[in-house]
Amino acid sequence: MARVSFGGVIKEVSLAYTPEAVPGDYVLVHVGFALNTVDEEEAQKTLELLRQLEPAGAETIDDAPGGEAA
After folding, report:
1. CATH of the domain at 51
2. Percent of the chain, pLDDT > 70?
3. How far, in Å, CA of 59 to CA of 6, rounded?
4. Strand order in 26-30's β-sheet?
5. What is residue 16's predicted lDDT score, i.e. its pLDDT?
6. What pLDDT sits at residue 39?
7. pTM of the complete model
8. What is the count of structural domains for the chain?
9. Are 27 and 13 contacting, i.e. CB atoms less than 8 angstroms apart?
10. What would the DSSP string read from start to end of 10-69?
11. CA 70, CA 53: separation in Å to the nearest integer?
12. Domain range holding 37?
């Protein structure tokens, strides 16, 4: 198990499928499971695309889609 930040919201996530994940890694999370790790460059590109989709006045996305292992 790991604590993962989703835009500042911390959730407990299972690392059963990603035992190689370490603090600071970006992970793709679905229904409470980290499915794979994502390199930082790809995570940042994805975050930028998500930011462009946010409606005006919405909170910004601060972490990787799925979150960053803490």
Report:
1. 2.30.30.140
2. 79
3. 12
4. 9-13, 2-6, 68-69, 26-30, 33-38
5. 97
6. 93
7. 0.68
8. 1
9. yes
10. EEEEB-TT-TT--TT-EEEEETTEEEEEE-HHHHHHHHHHHHHHSPTTPPPP-S-TT-EE
11. 26
12. 2-69
